């Protein structure tokens, strides 16, 4: 499961960053993050009782018509079937939004700043560090280990 999540996080965050590049997309993402932020305190329990219907809706919003291609790509990269990849991502999507929402609130980032915030997180992930993400790196830094449980 952790290989799927480690593979998927850049796709998820990159697609959210792309969505946040438009004013309407940033506003929609900010609303979703705000809605889910209150659930960030109990991520492990959230994973145990994940709302897969909500998770699938989140994935559809994030990836749009590219969802099938993304799932197939992650499947090829990890050797895990695309249906299982879809289930894993649907189970973590609400918790990911909760963590990002909590980070957005902690850093005071508004909708207009989401594209930059996500870019900093992606940059921190790719460089192995997270010192410039205003606390978001520490919030997201343990995602693989949290979701890998």
Tell me the number of helical segments per DSSP (H or I, 4 or more residues long): 9
Q: In percent, how helical is the residue content?
A: over 70%
Strand % is under 5%
- State the secondary-structure class: mainly alpha
Name the overall outline.
Answer: globular
> What Rg do the Cα atoms give?
14 Å
Order of helices and strands: HHHHHHHHH
Number of domain modules: 1
- Distance, first to last CA: 8 Å
Mean pLDDT over the full residue set: 82
- By oligomeric state, this entry counts as single chain
Q: Give the beta-strand count.
A: 0
Low-confidence stretches: 129-149
Largest sheet: none
Polypeptide structure, described:
The protein is mainly alpha-helical and 149 residues long. It has one domain (2-147). The protein has nine helices and no strands. The model is unreliable at 129-149 (pLDDT under 50).
């Amino acid at each position: 499961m952790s290989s799927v999540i480690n593979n998927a996080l850049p796709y998820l965050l990159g697609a959210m960053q792309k969505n946040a590049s438009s004013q309407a997309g940033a506003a929609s993402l900010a609303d979703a993050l705000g809605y889910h932020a209150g659930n960030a305190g109990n991520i492990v329990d959230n994973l145990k009782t994940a709302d897969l219907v909500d998770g699938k809706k989140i994935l559809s919003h994030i990836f749009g018509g590219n969802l099938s291609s993304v799932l197939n790509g992650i499947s090829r990269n990890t050797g895990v079937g695309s249906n299982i990849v879809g289930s894993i991502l649907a189970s973590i999507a609400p918790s990911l939004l909760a963590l990002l929402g909590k980070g957005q609130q902690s850093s005071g980032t508004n909708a207009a700043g989401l594209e930059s915030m996500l870019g900093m997180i992606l940059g921190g992930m790719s460089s192995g560090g997270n010192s410039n993400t205003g606390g978001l790196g520490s919030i997201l830094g343990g995602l693989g280990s949290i979701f890998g449980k």
